[in-house]
Amino acid sequence: MTPPSDPPLSKDGLEAYWMPFTANRQYKDNPRVLVAAEGMYYTRDDGERILDGTSGLWCVNAGHGRTAIAEAIAAQAKQLDYSPAFQMGHPLAFKLTAQLADMLPGDLDHVFLTNSGSESVETALKIALAFHRRRGEESRLVLVGRERGYYGANFGGISVGGIAANKEDFGPSLKEGDLLPHTHHPDHNAFSKGAPGWGSHLADVLEKIVEKHGGKTVAAVIVEPVAGSAGVLVPPKGYLQRLRDICDRHEILLIFDEVITGFGRLGSAFACEKFDVMPDMVTLAKGLTNGAAPMGAVVVRSYIYDAFLRTDTPGTTIEFAHGYTYSGHPLACAAALAAQDIYRDEDLFARASEIAPYWEEAVHSLKGLPHVTDIRNMGLAAGIDLEPIPDKPAARAFEIYLRAFEEGLLIRTTGDIISLSPPLIIERHEIDRMMELLTTLLKQAA
Ligand SMILES: Cc1ncc(COP(=O)(O)O)c(C=O)c1O
Question: Separation of 231 CA from ligand 1 center, angstroms?
């Protein structure tokens, strides 16, 4: 695909855009601009192709430029551009939610639509608090997250989030949730292929949190089954089940944040299936539309929905005072339905599972290269820890990110961790190319 022939952006032309989670000054001194995308590749504004090693931001699971998705969005824009989200419905919202309810296991059967992962998390936390109220347990107000957990950028999400830099600017208005310890301990589980054997006991800290607060106070625990943003932290064997058991003992809701793990990243549709652990709620976004339109979802088990609906209040009462203007936006629904068709027709989740062993060997081939202190993987995701440059945290990994982009590869870094999560359509030769380039860059890195 030929990139648009617009002249490059001038420095002045960059100023108005306050870019999210970006070092604006550094970026604007040396901007990186993408102008097109197709399949496994982005196109830069200078016409060079960039191999997408991160599915955009963990979302373009079926690869870029899917015509069926573009056509579905265009057709829907002509047919019904917008329909009020409150007290009104349109066919695609019902169709999509029924389809998601079918895809999710067990009685994860009711779907609340949002516009992002952050909104999905806010929604799930609010559902948890309101659910316990419906059961007459108003005392359950404690929300528990996990160190190194990322649950989006909104207030609820950062209150249970475990990335300090995302909270420290926002002062005490925020009610801090309790945090479970993270599970990444290279002294015990460095260079694990798949789930590490050590660490399931870390779930037991939940018992201590329950004890600390006492009685019926803990409402919900939210975890990413595999933590993504903090660098692909794979849960120890048995850890998630142990969390489930403790939640059951204390009637605490277990929320799996599957914004990254949903839609095939781990080689199955959802992580709850992969680990065979049933959460009470699942938050989704990203791959839901293949990244082609903003959309998120919260899928809840039947008894949660029933607790809201089976009430003795009059039928005219709004059961859950929550929602967004763009919940179930027709264009996003059209994109999501088309994306789900592609996943199904091309069996992409199974494809991810088939190629995962090759991926595992490839990423672990970087072991022994300069600066590499740990590598871990699951499905089509991997995290690579680098030794930081003394007194310059994150500098080494970011330099590799910049060099990779120059050389035609998009990776992602968090601190001194490189995260990789390519589209599920990646071919072996593209995996080889990623690893060859990373090998060169790691050898060259300061
Ligand atoms: C696990 C998880 N939850 C929530 C979010 C927030 O999603 P969004 O950026 O769509 O708000 C992210 C984003 O990376 C995520 O990884």
Answer: 13
